[in-house]
Specification:
Strands 2, 4, 5, 6, 9, 10 and 11 form a 7-stranded mixed sheet that branches. The chain has a 4-stranded antiparallel sheet with strand order 1-3-8-7, with no helix packed on it. The chain is globular, with a radius of gyration of 13 Å. It is mainly beta. The protein is built from 1 helix and 11 strands.
């Protein structure tokens, strides 16, 4: 049984930072491209950053480039997302996900859907102005 558990969200002022973690069990962690998605109320879920199995290839959506950093520790079965220079528009529920159909980072981020693959329950990030 695959389990993905996000943590690290919270309430932060604009300009602040957070570090999200996603601990995974039940699958061969270092065998898959993984990603972070987010969804704000009334907005479609979007893939914001994805990373390949060894961390050598990453993808970022334009709105987070230069502010967010994705990484992974395969020894700990954990995916990370460092969020800096946070803006109120970053407020959303953040999810980690893996879909074995997608190897390319851009494919996972742009095509990943909640009705396939494995998803965590999410961690809320709220940025106040």
């Amino acid at each position: 049984q695959v389990q993905m558990v996000e943590s690290g969200g919270g309430l932060v002022q604009a300009g602040g930072s957070l570090r999200l973690s996603c601990t995974v069990s039940g699958l061969t962690f270092d065998g898959y491209t993984m990603g972070w998605f987010r969804q704000a109320p009334g907005i479609e879920r979007e893939g914001i950053s994805c990373i390949n199995w060894n961390g050598n290839n990453t993808y970022y959506t334009d709105s987070v480039k230069g502010r967010f950093t994705i990484s992974r520790d395969n020894a700990k079965n954990t995916l990370y997302l460092e969020l800096t220079s946070l803006k109120p528009e970053d407020t959303a529920m953040y999810y980690c996900a893996v879909d074995p159909r997608y190897y390319r980072t851009s494919d996972l981020c742009l095509r990943g859907k909640t009705n396939s693959g494995y998803w965590g329950q999410g961690t809320q990030v709220t940025v106040s102005s």
